[in-house]
Write a structure and sequence with these properties.
Blueprint: H1 2-6, H2 9-25, H3 29-36, E1 40-49, E2 55-64, E3 72-79, H4 84-100, E4 106-113, H5 121-135, E5 144-148, H6 154-168, H7 189-208, E6 216-220, H8 224-235, E7 239-245, E8 248-251, H9 258-268, E9 278-280, H10 282-285, E10 292-295, E11 314-316, H11 325-334, E12 338-340, H12 342-345, H13 348-362, H14 368-393, H15 397-416
Parallel strand pairs: 3-4, 3-5, 6-7, 6-10, 10-11, 11-12
Antiparallel strand pairs: 1-2, 2-4, 7-8, 8-9
Helix pairs in contact: 2-4, 2-15, 3-15, 4-15, 5-6, 7-8, 7-13, 7-14, 13-14, 14-15
Bound molecules: NADPH dihydro-nicotinamide-adenine-dinucleotide phosphate (NDP) and 2-oxoglutaric acid.
């Protein structure tokens, strides 16, 4: 299994990062091995009846990296590139994210290899419900709590809640987070990840002495994370000069009206042909000058090939794993980009997911103002902790964030000991 996982480029990227930090922390070989490998890898086939009467079998995965500090927490992704190695890497990063934010969770991730944009609502519902049924022995509010990720949303979480609750004989809202408000979702969860990206990017601007009102941003991806990151940055006075989705990229040096673009994508499900900007080649978007570059779509987009050419002051990683280790080395050598690493930058989502789980367990609802204020307090503390640790040890931000997180997990494993 080790060799099989290591063949996957995303998993080997997560391992390369881990090994670098483990060397820095001088972890013992025993603790290193215990922290590195996932506790459980579950793969299921998900057969469904398609609308045309044929049967299709999908492959679904859930990787539970560890449960040392609490239930597994992490999103569920529907995307054609999903495979078990990528899911295992994303599960490992969830671990470090939860530990860094001091949330009482281990990390996990799930995914189904499918093309959600080509499936009907009925097909998506049947696939989600069947996947949930197959997962019932392995999930629960104290075991594994899923949430939305690429290609999934509140509706997906509602179907999981209903399927699990029907099986249990009573409503179990704490089985997932990122639910609709009508099913005891949390106020603020939908925008939490993007809000956090914008909040931390503006913290970084302050450290660099750049005024928000003078700053520009480019956002790759206009889904849940990208859209809300752009909307919050815009509300801070930051000018959004470029955005993209799968259809292509938009550019307007005077600033794109994000509220209008959100209304447009709500109607057309794409940014293509939006009248308030000009279209440019997607590959160019990441290379245009800006103060904040926020990749908020897929992984592996900042590579050895383009890392020397990006022209931003702050790289705000809304996506998971957007920067390859080779690109990291180029950026470190340049020394002129303030990187807010994924495990910190996009942690707003899982932090509000934690708040949602707590509210569900308490059968109590907080206001959006309370949620956002608690979120900002937690993100700010983690940001100061990571920047301080990076400065004191003269190491890059990603290494600092992962070092804090990995030593937390390693400490918990050491204290719990080995059984028997
Ligand atoms: N949702 C959450 O709470 C969290 C998400 N993340 C991470 O953020 C990233 C985005 O997730 P999320 O916003 O939820 O996903 P969504 O599915 O809501 O949105 C994804 C967006 O990325 C676009 N996209 C996909 N491929 C490309 C590409 N090659 N170039 C440009 N744009 C592209 C999609 O375009 P189109 O709509 O045209 O398909 C869409 O706009 C992922 O890496 C995810 O793991 C991290 C933390 C929490
Ligand atoms: O909200 C959650 O539980 C997890 C969100 C997620 O998948 C992520 O942070 O990558």
């Amino acid at each position: 299994m080790r060799e099989e996982l290591l063949k996957n480029p995303v998993f080997s990227m997560a391992i390369e990062q881990f090994d670098r930090v483990a060397d820095f922390l001088q972890l013992s070989p025993e603790i290193r091995e215990r922290c590195k490998w996932p506790k459980r890898i579950i793969t299921v086939t998900v057969p469904i009846r398609k609308d045309d009467g044929t049967t299709e079998v999908y492959f679904g995965h859930r990787v539970q990296h560890h449960l040392t500090r609490g239930p597994v927490k992490g999103g569920l992704r529907y995307h054609p590139d999903v495979d078990v190695g990528e899911v295992a890497a994303l599960a490992m990063w969830m671990n470090w994210k939860c530990a860094l934010l001091d949330l009482p969770f281990g990390g996990g991730k799930g995914g189904i290899c499918c093309k959600p944009m080509e499936m009907s609502e009925g097909e998506l519902e049947r696939m989600t419900r069947r996947f949930t049924m197959e997962m019932i022995p392995f999930i629960g509010p104290e075991i594994d709590v899923m949430a939305p990720d690429m290609g999934t949303n509140e509706q997906t979480m509602a179907w999981i809640t209903d399927t699990y609750s029907t099986h249990s004989g009573h409503l179990v809202p704490s089985i997932v987070t990122g639910k609709p408000l009508t099913l005891q979702g949390s106020a603020g969860r939908t925008r939490a990840t993007g809000h956090g990206v914008a909040f931390l990017a503006s913290n970084a601007l302050k450290k660099l002495g750049v005024e928000s009102a003078e700053a520009t941003a480019i956002v790759q991806g206009f889904g849940n994370v990208g859209m809300h990151a752009a909307a919050t940055m815009s509300s801070y006075g930051i000018k959004i000069i470029g955005v993209s989705d799968v259809s292509g990229a938009l550019w307007n040096p005077e600033g794109i009206d994000i509220q209008k673009l959100m209304a447009y994508t709500g109607k057309h499900q794409t940014i293509e042909n939006f009248p308030g900007a000009q279209s440019i080649p997607s590959g160019e978007l990441l290379l245009r000058p800006c103060d904040i570059l926020a990749p908020c779509a897929i992984g592996g987009v900042i590579t050895k090939a383009n890392a020397a050419a990006i022209k931003c002051k702050v790289l705000a990683e809304g996506a998971n794993g957007p920067t390859t280790p080779e690109a990291d080395r180029v950026i470190e050598e340049r020394g002129d980009v303030f990187v807010i690493p994924d495990v910190l930058c996009n942690a707003g989502g899982v932090t509000v997911s934690y708040f949602e789980w707590v509210q569900n367990l308490q059968r109590f609802q907080w206001t959006e103002r309370e949620v956002i204020s608690k979120l900002e307090t937690k993100l700010n503390a983690a940001f100061e902790q990571v920047t301080g640790f990076a400065m004191r040890n003269n190491i890059p931000m990603r290494m600092a964030a992962q070092a804090i997180a990995i030593s937390t997990v390693a400490g918990a494993k050491k204290t719990r000991g080995l059984f028997p």
